[in-house]
Amino acid sequence: MRNARAAAVVAAAGAMVALAACSPSLEEPSPLPPGTEPDLTIDAPSSAAPADEQGSEPCAIEDFTVAAEPDRKPEITVPSEPCAAPESPLTKVLEEGEGPAAEQGDTVSYDYVVVGVTSGTEATNWSADGPELARLEVASDDDTGWSELLEGMRPGARKLVVLKADQLDSTETGGFRADEAVAVVVGRSE
To answer: Which pTM was predicted?
Structure first.
C-alpha cells in the first residue's frame, strides 16, 4: 500500500513538471537578432533631477536652528524640506563676543561645524575633547572663504552662515556637492 501511494505521489509530481515545461512562456518575441544587447538608455526630462538635489525655494536663515552650549559642539538643525543655496551668504550672529574684532592681517583661532542641507553630511574640527582650533590669517586675498566668515568677529563670538558649499575651502567641504547649501556655525576663540 505504501509503495502504491509513493508511486502515485511520484506520478503526480512528474505530471506537474511536464505540464509546467509545456506551458507557454510569458516572454515576448524580440525584434533583435540573437546575441544583440538592447539599448537601455532612458531619456528623462531635464526637470527630473533627484529630489534631494532640488530645492524649490532658496534657504532662509530663520529656517535653521542651532543648539550651542559653552565648550560643546554646536548642533545645527536644517529645514525639513530641501532648499536651494542662497545667491549670497546669509548670516545670523549667535553670540557677539568681546574684545577687538578680527581685521585683515590678524591671525585668529576658530572652530566650526558645517552641515549639508540635503545630504546631512557634517564636517567639523570638534572632537570628543573639544575643538581642535584652526588658525588663519584674515586676508582679503584668501580664497578659502574662511576670512570672510571670520572678519569682524570678536573673541567668543559665534555665528551661523548659510551659503553654497563651493564658497568654502574644499578641505572642510570635501563631502558636499559644490552647489549644495551648507549651514556653518563658526566660533572665534581668543
So the answer is: 0.66
